[in-house]
Design a protein that fits this description.
This protein is 55% helix and 14% strand. It is of the alpha/beta class. A four-stranded parallel β-sheet has the order 2-1-3-4, with helices on both faces. Helix 6 packs across helix 7. The chain starts with a strand and ends in a 5-residue tail after the last helix.
Amino acid sequence: MKVLFVIDRLQEDDEGLPLHGVNGLKMGRLLLGESIPFGRLLYDRDVALAAGHSHLKRIGIETMFLGDERFYPELLRGKRRALVAHDDYYKAVQRYTKHLQAVHSKCTKLHTIVLFGRSTHLLYDDAIKRLEEENEHVAAAFNTMEVLRLPAVHRLVRDERIGQVKDIVERLAPSNS
């Protein structure tokens, strides 16, 4: 995996997997001209291969939140002071910090992280700060990566501002590694 897409939360129609619903279908159409949800192309390698998009194996996708966390409204609004009072937020930062350490050890070719939504931007920043305290080497590796901070997926799709994501997908397509 060379690129990691981090989606803020699952939508109701995603059926437990990111970008498997309407937004994923719109992204698939905008990015690849396919009538297949983009999340399905990323998760199901056989479908991507059959559709002629084998390069998508270089993209990973994950979500940070289910959307039912008690701190999520404050996080969405960017209210850092209110977040400090939530133990759940502290635990989420700690959990995501450990997840980033695992990503670093398993995905050695990772060079780009695409964060969708303000909530992912804040949690990622807090996790990196914590990572700098716990493991400077891993934090330095993430700080050298290209990190794109984009609006939430539904906003990108609605406004058809998907150009940066399309550039990433097209940049991966000619690669043979």
